[in-house]
Design the sequence.
């Protein structure tokens, strides 16, 4: 191939890619959630001694992954891979659980499953040392970098109070189904990090959130794209020194997992699992008041499973 | 023919070595085996010499190997191991391939300049500072060129390709962050590179025989090396073919003499002679031992240098390990940030040690996975000009990483075990309450504490349910995560460097009461 040909083709390819991104956004934004059926339960809570089995049982109670992922759809799975820490520290989502979720997506007929996070520590060390990169690759997922600003596209969030615009990873804009897989942890700034806080890892500029009313920004982002499904890993939980943790001693065994499409409800339930009340966490209260979900657990249809 | 094999051997080994040298500096994955890096840097004369004379140990004895090789075979280092020398050879190769200029000429030695530079470098080195070597050492210059010029270009190419692939849904090639390019170090490297290319194309290996202190130094043992290039006076017809291929310009055909202080042992001349009159053989004990002025000078200089060397050992102990302690007082730094001391990388013991040993080869800058190590300008003062420092504007030090100490070839950054590293306090975080979001905006922030690996920065109850950062200085290691993450401008938390690195306390680990509940709390 001549050099000029290569350049021409390259330019053409990137133009096509660029325009498909652009129009892809428009169509997907209108299509809204792929699942039209109502969820069987508002929240499923599972206790057990194996996160993989717990997920199998939990998703079965919700009618299986096919309730959320349709044949041929693309899925983005967003775990917490924020820190260069081994799974023992529970600073990142359990790799076996993330892998199992990917497998369920493929079983439901997903055409592609992508996994990424905008990490806090050196990104490739986080991907490797969390165990998540190798685990999900085994399951056939594509591991996508989150370390380059060019992946993040500007979006506007007109309903947001403090966060009116953000640069969001193209996968979140393009994927048909968005599955949020946080790990429950203590958090020094937000008090506790669960599902809503995990979405800070899909935007580029986190400093803006910190300097413009953190709790309000956490709630505001949910307006942009609500995950279609949230799975909270509360199997091993960092009880102090979060979100990074200082030692493995910061972690306790709580043997819990939560699944819900209501991001406020799941955060409220996880807060209780942690030993706090949802009212103690400003962003949960804000999100509830903004009608992004329901924090009042007694109003919800909850399925409790013990294995 | 044997002589042809010698040149082939030289060229093949040099290519391999140059490739390895490129690889260690251009490793965009920051994941290269430190063993391989060690192989390359072990043979580098100046880093090894500096490490050794500062009693860093036998791990830095590579220069002795080079000296032995030089006594045996001449300036082997210059044609086999010096990456800057081999780089010049590559340039010359292409020049001869593509331009009409094909011949070189004998040049008279510039003894005053070259020995002047050498003595100055050595005196300053034994006086405790590597500043002149850091500017003239060919390995360190090669490192600068690679880290500041070639690596960013490679990373850009990688990122472009990665972006093109990802638009085809292929994400296997990851982009590489280029967090910053420091202008002073960039300009220095660019200007030097242009100068080197010009010098090489015009005068071939003149850098090595005029400026390079390593070349001049190795020229002294080379003058009495066992094996050496010589012209067979019976065969030689003064045709000048050998001189025309001599990159060092050291063959004086008129007098049938080779200046061994300048010969870089490239073996080009061996096969050039139609009469087989150029030899590489064991030195004959002849009465007419070449008494060219350069040689006599060389030996006299050698003695002088040895004396300087011995006498300056006394200086070494006093200056390199003098632990001057100038800690700042209790008064809080004013707003904006007023840093008293820069931060040197973990393992560098103290700022003096670092400044005196570092040759600014930028191998650590290139190897640092978080890119927190960046070239400075005058952050350390003149003695540390252009040396790397912990640049917390750009990034922060990864708690679980000891890479800079593993790769440093001079011992300016000594290797630390991961346990040692985690309690090595290179600086202390200082909180400026007046700048903090929690105070100015009355909202939660805590980015500093979030990133803190030891929880030296923790969040304590303020008012209205807000949490305010608090620094426990004994726990702080000075990694700069808090400073990097802080969203205010000027920063509300910054690291004040420790001129002498201290030990931080290990975070106290208390057990958490097991909460065994089989029931759901809702």
Sequence:
């Amino acid at each position: 191939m001549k050099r000029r040909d290569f350049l021409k083709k390259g330019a053409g390819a990137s133009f096509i890619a660029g325009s498909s991104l652009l129009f892809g956004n428009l169509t997907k934004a209108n299509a809204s959630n792929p699942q039209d059926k109502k969820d069987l339960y508002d929240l499923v809570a599972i206790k057990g001694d194996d996160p993989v089995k717990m997920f199998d049982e939990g998703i079965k109670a919700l009618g299986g992954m096919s309730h959320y992922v349709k044949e041929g759809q693309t899925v983005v799975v967003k775990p917490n891979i924020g820190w260069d820490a081994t799974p023992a520290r529970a600073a990142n989502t359990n790799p076996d659980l993330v892998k199992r979720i990917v497998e369920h997506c493929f079983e439901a007929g997903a055409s592609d499953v992508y996994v990424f996070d905008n990490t806090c520590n050196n990104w490739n060390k986080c991907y490797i040392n969390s165990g998540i990169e190798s685990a999900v690759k085994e399951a056939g997922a594509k591991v996508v970098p989150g370390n380059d600003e060019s992946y993040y596209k500007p979006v506007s969030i007109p309903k947001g109070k403090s966060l009116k615009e953000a640069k969001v990873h193209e996968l979140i804009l393009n994927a048909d189904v968005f599955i949020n897989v946080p790990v429950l942890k203590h958090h020094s700034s937000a008090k506790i990090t669960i599902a809503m806080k995990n979405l800070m890892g899909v935007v580029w500029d986190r400093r803006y959130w910190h300097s413009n009313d953190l709790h309000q920004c956490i709630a505001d982002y949910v307006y942009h794209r609500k995950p279609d499904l949230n799975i909270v890993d509360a199997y091993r939980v960092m009880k102090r020194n979060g979100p990074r943790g200082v030692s493995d001693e910061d972690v306790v065994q709580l043997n819990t997992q939560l699944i819900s499409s209501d991001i406020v409800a799941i955060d409220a339930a996880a807060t209780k699992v942690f030993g706090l009340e949802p009212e103690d966490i400003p962003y949960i209260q804000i999100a509830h008041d903004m009608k992004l979900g329901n924090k009042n657990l007694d109003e919800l249809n909850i399925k409790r499973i013990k294995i | 023919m044997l002589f042809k094999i010698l040149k082939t051997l030289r060229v093949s080994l040099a290519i391999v070595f140059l490739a390895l040298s490129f690889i260690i500096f251009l490793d965009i994955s920051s994941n290269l085996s430190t063993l391989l890096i060690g192989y390359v840097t072990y043979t580098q004369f100046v880093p090894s010499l500096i490490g050794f004379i500062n009693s860093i140990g036998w791990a830095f004895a590579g220069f002795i190997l080079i000296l032995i090789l030089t006594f045996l075979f001449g300036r082997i280092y210059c044609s086999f191991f010096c990456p800057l020398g081999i780089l010049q050879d590559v340039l010359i190769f292409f020049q001869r391939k593509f331009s009409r200029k094909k011949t070189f000429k004998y040049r008279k030695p510039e003894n005053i300049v070259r020995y002047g530079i050498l003595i100055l470098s050595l005196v300053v080195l034994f006086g405790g500072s590597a500043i002149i070597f850091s500017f003239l050492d060919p390995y360190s210059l090669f490192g600068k060129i690679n880290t500041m010029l070639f690596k960013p270009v490679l990373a850009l190419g990688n990122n472009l390709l990665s972006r093109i692939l990802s638009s085809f849904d292929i994400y296997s090639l990851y982009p590489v962050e280029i967090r910053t390019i420091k202008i002073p170090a960039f300009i220095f490297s660019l200007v030097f590179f242009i100068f080197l290319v010009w010098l090489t194309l015009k005068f071939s290996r003149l850098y090595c025989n005029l400026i390079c202190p390593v070349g001049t130094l190795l020229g002294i043992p080379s003058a009495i090396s066992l094996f050496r290039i010589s012209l067979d006076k019976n065969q030689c017809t003064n045709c000048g073919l050998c001189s025309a291929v001599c990159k060092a310009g050291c063959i004086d055909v008129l007098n049938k003499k080779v200046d061994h202080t300048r010969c870089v042992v490239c073996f080009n001349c061996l096969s050039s002679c139609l009469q087989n009159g150029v030899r590489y053989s064991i030195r004959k004990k002849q009465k007419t031992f070449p008494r060219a002025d350069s040689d006599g000078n060389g030996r006299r200089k050698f003695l002088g240098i040895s004396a300087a060397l011995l006498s300056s050992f006394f200086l070494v102990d006093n200056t390199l390990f003098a632990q001057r302690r100038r800690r700042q007082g209790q008064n809080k730094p004013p707003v904006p940030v007023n840093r008293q001391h820069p931060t040197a990388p973990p393992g560098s013991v103290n700022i003096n040690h670092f400044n005196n040993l570092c040759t600014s080869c930028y191998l650590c800058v290139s190897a640092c996975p978080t890119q927190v190590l960046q070239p400075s300008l005058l952050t350390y003062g003149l003695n540390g000009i252009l040396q790397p420092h912990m640049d917390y504007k750009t990034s922060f030090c990864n708690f679980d990483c000891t890479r800079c100490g593993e790769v440093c070839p001079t011992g300016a950054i000594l290797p630390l075990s991961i346990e040692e590293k985690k309690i090595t306090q290179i600086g202390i975080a200082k909180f400026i309450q007046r700048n903090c979001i929690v105070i100015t905006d009355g909202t939660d922030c805590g980015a500093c504490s979030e990133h803190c690996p030891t929880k030296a920065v923790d969040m304590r109850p303020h008012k209205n349910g807000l949490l305010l950062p608090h620094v426990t200085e004994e726990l702080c290691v000075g990694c700069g995560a808090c400073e990097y993450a802080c969203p205010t401008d000027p920063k509300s938390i910054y690291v004040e460097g420790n001129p002498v690195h201290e030990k931080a306390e290990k975070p106290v680990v208390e057990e958490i009461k097991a909460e065994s509940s089989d029931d759901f709390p809702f």
